[in-house]
Write a structure and sequence with these properties.
Elements: H1 4-14, H2 28-33, H3 39-66, H4 68-71, H5 81-84, H6 89-107, H7 111-129, H8 137-152, H9 163-184, H10 201-224, H11 226-232, H12 240-254, H13 262-265, H14 270-284
Helix pairs in contact: 3-6, 3-7, 7-8, 8-9, 9-10, 10-12, 12-14
Amino acid sequence: MQALKPDLRALAVLMRPHQWLKNVFVFAGLMFSQSWGNGPLIQRILLAFAAFCCISSFVYILNDWRDRASDALHPLKRKRPLASGAVSVPAALALAGLLLIAGVWLAAGNRVLLLLLGLYVALNLAYSWRLKQVPVVDVSIIASGFMLRLLAGTLAVGIPPSRWLLLTGLFIALFLGFSKRKAESFHDAANQRAVMAHYPSALLDTFMAVTMTATITTYSLYATSPQTQAQHGERLVYTVPVVIFGLLRYTYQVHKGRGEDVARDLLRDPWILMALAIWLLIFLSRRF
């Protein structure tokens, strides 16, 4: 049994569970619709979340399998389970197959969710095999993954999606994607992605500024829209400065060379965590 423990740990790392933080986008519809007392709806959303966790890990394993030779030459990526040899190729592919089956089983009976998961896999495979080399298209595909999560937690479970909220999700995903590229630009050129040759630093700054501005604009329009005011009252208006602070603070972190791993870096900065806590306190307060 002791000999199995390192393999089990490596298999867990191979699934990249910390990246499941991105799947919380599935809960956006539940949170903003305030349907917390609807048990069947919560169950459908939890199934959608679990399905996306399985399918996203399936995609990560396929990507690591395909890139294992190049990852072995990278100073950081060579520590990944497949690149380092901690997990064998047959074991990795078997785990990927089990995750695919589990994801499809969790989504069974929900045609919209199955379609969204299929699109997610297709886009990510296209990204890994070719489109990650095409500037702007690469980040757009990353943003599309977040949009599919939003739709899984709204359209796929019967919650009518807010147009402003969907646009906010799109623009913040683009902002995080271009921020990731900016963070990568600070590293040694020999260790960068090939697509980085097409991303001058000033261009990435422009893309970040545009998408941050669009995020703030669409979120502000959502917070002040008549539909939102009727549902949430005035309190979301008071979250706008908090959102702006969080975006500015994250931009600061990116310019310090952080931001390559969004899911991990968002949880490392105490000021961003504090902004998130304040946002939740305002959102959940009934006084506003």
